[in-house]
Amino acid sequence: MTTLLPDAVAAYFAAKNKQDIDAMLATFAPDASVRDEGQDMRGAEQIRTWMEKTTAKYRVSVEIRETQFDGNQLNVVGLVSGNFPGSPAILRYVFTLRDGAIVHLEIGA
What we know:
With 109 residues, the protein is of the alpha+beta class.
């Protein structure tokens, strides 16, 4: 079964699986924010730094298992494989979208 995702989210996961920082960052609005591992990143510079550090450290790929729309939010459950204890693991990604771009992403277990 094919999962239809908004373009920005589909492009984010495609870029993430290729570890392409520029392509991942391009899916975010300039004023976007991210919450991951208990930390908040705001704006393109902080989000890029987070992407560079986590990509180099974990080298993850994500296989989407489930999606659910809730208003302007998209909840994605993914099987995440990479260089971390307990890999693979199920993680939840909550995207908030505006005008075709990601304005907020929260990642958690």
